[in-house]
């Protein structure tokens, strides 16, 4: 595989969630050696790069997005030697590897925060975080009305009376990015991992680092990945102008390294033109396209989002990204099994309405084939190549997502999409590890989705993904240009180079243009016609 400077522009990047990918030692928790051992599977699937969610030392109050040491590996996942082996082996197989960087907040167990708690008010230790006195005569009310994304106030009070800001869990204090010491520290962390050979960083909450200095009140709650209101000024904690100079500085650091190292923004920012400001030529390389992930299964809206995304990114010379699933949302094989237009769910429990699993999988396969036919770069989430659904009946006592507790049990949260993967149908823990342990329970249906039941089986979801990735590469779809042929209530059809992509969203079968030769189809055709909820790639 060529290792060019611009590899990311058309790359398919596969997200590995280390806790749940593969467990090498049988403790029920995935780990780095487990990932390294399964890299040949990813190579065979045909992806270009791996994005690893956090594996750093952490008390794991937010599954590792609460980092206690940015330069280490949590013993649950291995050690630095294992990280080095993983990087080397990925490169050996021609895969790029990007890691997660969590700059908005540290863990409350980070040495800086421990020092801040024991230091007095006004100290340099506290100046690394956002500490304020409270309101009211005795300072017993929080400094303002901001709410945590996980529910409840975004402020927590220390015994000496001062409050600190945490836009996420109480164990995730927000850093003060107006402090030069914080900026210098993160440049050093970037260099630490760049020197070890990583190909880039997915930047967590990239739109949140700078807060409005006046701490203007803002009572609305923000949801994970929830887009900001497209109209009006941004909320005082999100998408502030000051974030951009941070990424310009980081970009200049990355540009000192060879091989095309990249920054990817996780920024919940709307509209697309505003998000595109994060991927201007001197800032990041890519930003996740959450409006696309959130789009309903309706052709006009989907087409509109595709057009807006391409136009906004083209305007700044960036590549457009596409994504359908990740570790924060209900898996798309399940989302699409609910009635069209249903509002985004924040977790599903046994008492909630259950999805139509067969319809969900059928539409998920069609949605994926549509996505992989688009020009740009695509992100896949581990297990989607198996057609894995969400665990929608997990008993609540197993839930670990802080959103479940902090929301007062109104949001079930994200555990259902984080269940350890099934590799072998007939092995303990479905082959996740050598024992029968898995940190979240795997549903009994996992056997039918196991990788060993799908590899080499014509028509399986795994084989569909593998064929799509190979065809995408051989026809250069990632670097192509989209030309619409049809967008109406029933179908979307576009050309990308020499490939025609058609998705039928209606109920009646749709004809392919005369003379079309089918390359790939998400389900068998019906007498040469494209049935409902099916995508076809064809050549004319
Ligand atoms: C976004 C991450 O994807 C999510 O999992 C995490 O909880 C928040 N950022 C806070 O770090």
UniProtKB/TrEMBL annotation:
Gene3D superfamilies in the cross-refs? Glycosidases, Oligo-1,6-glucosidase, Domain 2
* Entry-linked SUPFAM superfamilies: (Trans)glycosidases
By what name is this protein known? Alpha-glucosidase
Domain Glycosyl hydrolase family 13 catalytic: start-end pairs = 15-418
Spell out the family assignment given in the record's similarity comment.
Belongs to the glycosyl hydrolase 13 family.
Alphabetized Pfam families for the sequence: Alpha-amylase
